[in-house]
Amino acid sequence: MDRFVKKHKLEDAAAPDDTQVPEQLIEAAAATVSTATTQLQLPKNAAGNPQLKVRQYSDNYLALGFTWMGDPDCPSPLCIVCGEKLANSAMAPAKLKRHLTTRHPEVSDKNAQYFQRTLALNKKQTAAFEKKFKISKKPQEASYAVTEIVAKKMKSHNVTETVILLACQEMVRIMFGEDVVSESNKIPLSDNTISRHIADMSSDTERNVLSKIKSRGFFAIQVDKSTDISSKAQLLAFVRFSDNEAIMEDFFCCKELPETTKGQDVYDVLNSPFQSCELTWENCVGICTNGAPAMTGNVKGFVSLAQQQNPNIIVTHCFLHREALVAKTIGRELKSVLDMVVKIVNYMKMRPLKCRQFAKVCESVEADHVTLIQHIDVRWLSRGKVLRRFYELREEMVVFCSQGNLKDFAEVLGDESWCSKLAYLADIFHELNFLNSGMQGRNENILTSTDKISAFRKKLTIWKKRASPGNVEMFPSVVDRNCQDILPLILNHLDTLLAGLSKYFPSISMDQYDWI
Q1: Is the domain of 142 the same as that of 246?
Q2: Angstrom distance (rounded) from CA 321 to CA 325
């Protein structure tokens, strides 16, 4: 190694000065290269390149104006004067000396004591800078706490600095005085900080969930796709796994389907996060879907493609989707009533003037509500809410339609038989909504949902038996009206619901889950 080191004589060797770099230091630095250089044992490539060498730092390099930084096993030389970081291959006296003389000729004749003092001064300035701008633990903790609240409430990031911080300062000023207000200014709440904190918490949550899934080994997923307000198809996936003898459920991913929503597209989009998270289909024990053909097709469905990777995957049809399919099964007469309600509501919602006039009519009679609820087909619970609100405001609708020359609507609303059917729909869909809402939540599983479906089936059987002689006390809105003309319709619909439950929930026995 010594043959690669250029030895330069000092110009004024006869009159050495304490500010000059002695030649002995250069030679000593060169002599230590061979002992400070270690070889990193790396495998040779296909071309048979020799082994790479890793140079180590020597204290004699301080006389050349260099210290080191980075990995102790592979340090990088750092210039004390300009702070430039060089590669490990530049850890040689000749290269370090060349950098000093070419980049900093004004200090090239300084000795080691000068560079030692400069290094100590740089460290002192860095420590003072970090102390001044370093945020303590409590303000950071408060910032993350505020970030979590903003994220859960889905508010804009700048609300923390423009609203929350100002409100906090005013409350502290009134409660504790002006001296404590300055402490709240230490909390970082800018919009960029909130965005960065949300990304940090999201990454931390993702790492924790993935670590738990990998440590437990087996997991199950629930997959569903829907279309958002911008007409883009979104694929959502939730994951369930065991954690300390408890079933944990967490959000896994939300990916956009680029074009079509076929089974192959769903598999490709979901397989990408599986690979990035280092999860395998062999560890997936169950898949829950909405039962659509793209999901459950025998040949090209998503489930079939997943079972090609793991034939032991258990496939289930979501209880909520099955209950929604049962609720959709209504007779022709009841469907005509529902369609008329949706037609009237849409007519009102499409005309803001009509909505304001109707609100004024409701206020004049001191009604509990002043607006109707619009029906949205993709939101299953909205059907029951729309019918309930419309039935509660039916008398106000009659007055409004009579005053607004809406004779067709007024005639329908004035029909007692039609209103009796509306009352029954409002009551029965209220019960169906209650059943659907009861099967939602983190602590819900196939056992509890099965119990609720079984209970509702028994309830329908009892209702049918009691309604046969004309007793409809289980439907409070129907009791107040003459229901004899719609009694066959009620019995027919109850039979339809029972048949739908038997169709979509054929095997509901709990014996197969006794081992749990």
Answers
A1: no
A2: 6
